[in-house]
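Intended use. Records like the one below are meant for learning the mapping from a protein sequence to its folded structure. Do not use them to infer anything beyond what is encoded.
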Amino acid sequence: MADSTRREFVKQTALGTAALMTFSANILGANDRVRVGMIGVGGRGQELLKQVQQVPNTQLVAVADVYTRRRDEAKQLAPGIDTLDDYRRLLDRKDIDAVIVASPLHIHKVHFVDVLAAGKDLYSEKTMTWSIPEAEDCLAAARKSDRVIQIGLQHESSGSLADARQWINRGIVGSVAQVESWMSRNTPHGKGQWVRPVPADCDAQHVNWQAFLNGRPDHGFDGNQFINWRLFWEFSGGNITENMVHQIAWIMSALDLPLPTAAYMSGGIFSEKDGRQVPDTIAVTFDFPEKVVTWQSTFSNSHFGLGERILGTDGSIEHLWGTNDMVTGRSVQSWHYYPEKVNRPGGSAITGESKDQDHMANWIDCVRTRKTPNAPVEIGYRSAVACHMANLSYRRRQRVTLEQARSMQPQFS
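Structure written out for the chain above:
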């Protein structure tokens, strides 16, 4: 072997050994403590903080938030953690294995990509992104990465989904051409859905407003927009990205659906007259190959909770959650299979009994085992694109195809 060739061989071998050692160092054993950081500890973030604290052999190391109050609240919930005002300082830390992103929707993409670039495993709250281009960027980053990624689509860990898949795979549902779904809520008169009080210290001295804006036009600090960002298109996708995303992901997973070919959404601000931009009353229709999926929602009546009905030639699957029983008035969750007697005369009804999995614990387990979690980036991507197609249709008052949606520029206002 020539000296130059030998030197190159030794160099490449050393590089390969170093890479293998680095990769091995990042693999946790079954009994190793998973060290977690969190970006964004507002209302939803604090719920996730409590969830990860309940997972055995898991340590919450540090959190980052742009608002001093949120950092103080997190420290009360998890004494001993470090609190940081810049998420990049959290990502630089070597004592963090995995990161939970619970920032507002319009910042998800930046945090998603940066967490992967830092070599950390990721739990990203739903919806995965604020727009279709951002969803494409996150999917591309995920495919280049070897990190474990869980999207906060908790219905993907549900017993109802497990049973629905089983019934569909057994063939007892038959051919499905239509799916119905809905979500109903209500609030006392004068108290709008999602509207939260603005604390006295929510001001430019206690909030890094520029970090929150994430490149949006700066019209001056606005405490209402900061606290109630879900009400504004600039930062949110409204009820579509807050709630429909869970159900459309459940439906797409149950039936193994691709991206919708088209979407149409109608509705408006009919009950919540509080300055919000996003609609409170919604009807969505999705076209899929040889299937139609609908979703309806209102913020002015909660009686029927949420649910899905998968209608097949040989049987129906009905999942109800939060529906008030007509006789007892109790709120129940249940899912059933009902045979279509015309095609399955000997079939009988089935009550689903599979247990829900702990979505956070599933992610932590996969961080250790390197298995694929229940809500991987692929379903995060497909559900996000579907959501954005619906909102694009509503905002343009037209039916939108997948090709059209991909070419449309997102609107800040």
